[in-house]
Fold:
Amino acid sequence: MDRGRAYDQYMRIGFISALLPVLVLSGCSGSDIQKPATATAATKQTTQVAYTVTGMHCNSCAEAITAEVAAVKGVRSVQCTFESKCAVLELNNPSAQADAERAITKLGYTIAPCAVPAAGATQPVTGVSSK
Structure:
């Protein structure tokens, strides 16, 4: 193997070694992704809001938004997709809406309110239910 090729391989290994912890720490492993919780009769009344999200570049952006918003107290579930550029939030507490909006914009994305997609819409969804 010539020196140039060996150096290129060395740099690729270094890049991957540096990138892997970042992906794991940012939640890209997918291990924390769960199905959205199903509603039961005992569940409190919830509010749904939806936003068009500008600035997403890939599915990891949607996953980062999902994880950040799911951590907001009062957010029951989050569904965000890169393909639709949409984030749909289900809130247990309507006052959590402002905190959820701040969580998205804190990540550097721009949001604008939009209509909540129809329940039967067929689009890929990355969903996380929060506690």
